[in-house]
Please model this.
Amino acid sequence: MGEQFSPFLLQAAPAGPEGGGLSFFLMLGGMLMVLYFIMIRPEAKKQKKHQSMVSALKRGDEIILNSGIFGKVVSVDQQTLTIEIADKTKIKVLKNAVTALANQMPKEDDAAANNKESAKA
Model:
């Protein structure tokens, strides 16, 4: 008995669309631009703002550390700060441990008043 081949098996597979390379690279470039403007650029701005805040620290500033400790700057060195956290209690910390200036944080009374005003509107 002779084997017979189906004409469908002998045909070549249909070719996929040709020339999709340019559109692929345009889409990839567009996605990278979106990634840059959504994630990378805002983080770089935030780091730059933090760095300028840390470099402008001076004696007498009230600060908040990333551990949640509030203190008053007693002395400033190149990489470190000495802060007073209680009467006659001083600690030495790295400048990068500073999260914010305490006087720039909104007070609880102000935040509560703002919430009440926005609820009325």
